[in-house]
Amino acid sequence: MNIFKNDFEQRWEELFRDVKKLNEYTATRPVELRKVKVSGHDIDGSIFIGAKFINVEFESTRGQKSKFLKTLFKDCTFVSSNFDESIFADVEFANCKFLDSTLSGSTMTNVRFVNCTMEETKLTGLDGTELVIEGGEYGTRTSFSFSGLPLKLKDAIFSGVNFMGMVDSCPLTIEGGLLSEVDFSKSHFSTVTLRRVRQGEGGIKFNNITAENIRLEKVELDGIGFMGSYAKTAIIVDSVVLAIGFSGGGVGEIIFRDSTVQYFDIAESMMPHVEFNSCRLIEPMLYDGFIKEFAIRDSSVKDITGNGFKADIVVWDNVTLDGKIDLTNAQIKDFRPTRIKRGPRLQLITTGSNIRF
Q1: What is the pLDDT of residues 43-63, one digit of tens each?
Q2: Is 99 inside any structural domain?
């Protein structure tokens, strides 16, 4: 009884021992390989067009400088395998598992990872047109660093993953999912967009990045840093952000709307424009900082640490102040407080400042 579904399944071991014969075979027909273990094979330089790998386990397999075009990997496992410097075009990895494997230095054109898991896997130095990651879990010591292609991450979990040093000013879009101990530092993006993203126990680092625009929308974050970063605008909308820092950078405009913000940190920094609209602001860290134009409208503010704070223009309209508002030695050239309301525990400290309410 023939248990094989196609000729390639009968001959794959023979063909995998001779890449020249393998490529002659795959050049004339699409192939399908199912429910086998590929262990210890060297298929560097192999070419697959329209191939399907289903429930295949690649263990200690080499496939460097290979080409996978219009190829599907479904329910596959990659363990201690190396597919560096390969070309992946119109490829989908569906429900695949990666452990201690590498696809670094590869070109990825229209590549999707759907509901995959990764541990200790390297996809560094990638280039191409777009990489989409949808669903799944990407864990400790997995790295996408030094890559230069648009990234779309949707509804996935990233924990202990490295995206440092991204290049070529490509867009980064993260929709849904959870981030914990994820590092995007020292990267160059065109835009950074986070929507409906939640944060785990670890921090999220965007320190020392450059971007045209940064936008956080409907996020729930507890520790995100943009220290030393440069962007034209940073806009945070309809979000809960319990610790966010911009110290030491150069962001042209920082705008918060309809958000709860705690520990907004621009200490010892110079900022051109910061505004809060319809926000709940808790313990902003303004000490020894400078904001050229600082506006708070239709918001509540509790506990300001603002020793030595300086500004050119400050507009506070329809603002409720509560807790310890420490503006010791603050110097504001043009202070415009209107419709200021006092909370029940307000302790206003303006010693040595030129501020008058």
Answers
A1: 999 999 999 999 999 999 999
A2: yes
Task: Count how many domains the chain has.
Answer: 1
Neighbours of 35 (CB within 10 A): 12
- Ordered DSSP codes for 213-239: EEEEES-EES-EE-TT-EEEEEEEES-
Q: Report how far residue 151's alpha carbon sits from residue 276's, in angstroms, rounded to the nearest whole number.
A: 30
Say how far residue 246 (Cα) sits from the centre of its chain: 17
E strand or H helix at 303, and its extent? strand 290-305
Task: Identify the domain containing residue 121 by its residue range.
Answer: 68-349
> In the beta sheet, which residues pair with residue 107?
87, 127
Contact between 71 and 94 (Cβ < 8 Å): no
Domain presence at residue 164 = yes
pTM: 0.93
CA-to-CA separations, 209 to 65, 68, 127, in angstroms, rounded: 31, 33, 19
Is residue 249's pLDDT more than 90?
no
What would the pLDDT profile of 68-84 be if each residue is shown by its tens digit? 999 999 999 999 999 99
Distance CA 297, CA 291 (A): 16
- For residue 10, tell me if it sits in a domain: no
